Backbone:
């Protein structure tokens, strides 16, 4: 819609604005839907139905498994991701059942369960909450991790902040020296 006139643009103007010829526009409006487009539409509808029925808990891998097992279509991860993206279907990292999106949290709970809670049994909800809090504190401040060069997550974070701060100070000094010239 033209914001100045409050009227819809004509086809010629809209095509010119989009950089499309009128002939291409009219050809597109009369095109036949391809078999591939029909399949993608059916897969999209199946994904929407499955997600609504299961409270939006599935990730791409599980959706792909369901599609391949329960429909006549055989899809890969990339096709499922593309169909979801084009349909505007997104997944929250906070939902259960999407460990691919939520891998840092899944990793934390896996380590806590294996390294801490396998040997401790809680008798009350309060005791469980205290042990979870102590476990998270242990994980962040005491448990060294190979992927963080043998540092704890908190030590690694502080190291990164100090390094960033040094770089910031260095560039600030360069800028100050440049401005004094």
Residues:
């Amino acid at each position: 819609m033209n914001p100045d006139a409050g009227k819809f643009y004509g086809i010629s103007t809209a095509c010119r604005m989009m950089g499309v010829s009128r002939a291409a526009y009219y050809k597109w409006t009369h095109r036949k839907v391809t078999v591939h487009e029909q399949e993608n539409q059916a897969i999209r509808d199946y994904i929407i139905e499955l997600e609504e029925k299961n409270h939006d808990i599935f990730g791409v891998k599980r959706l792909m498994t369901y599609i391949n097992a329960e429909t006549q279509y055989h899809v890969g991860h990339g096709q499922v991701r593309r169909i979801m993206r084009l349909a505007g279907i997104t997944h929250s990292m906070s939902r259960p059942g999407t460990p691919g999106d939520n891998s840092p949290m899944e990793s934390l709970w896996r380590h806590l369960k294996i390294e801490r809670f396998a040997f401790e049994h809680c008798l009350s909800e309060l005791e469980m909450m205290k042990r979870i809090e102590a476990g998270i504190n242990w994980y962040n401040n005491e448990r060294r991790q190979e992927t963080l060069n043998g540092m704890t997550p908190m030590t690694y974070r502080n190291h990164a902040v100090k390094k960033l701060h040094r770089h910031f100070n260095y560039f600030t000094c360069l800028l100050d020296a440049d401005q004094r010239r």
About this structure: The mean pLDDT is 82. The longest helix spans residues 153-180. Helices lie at 11-18, 22-29, 35-53, 60-70, 77-87, 103-115, 125-141, 153-180. The two ends are 53 Å apart (CA to CA).
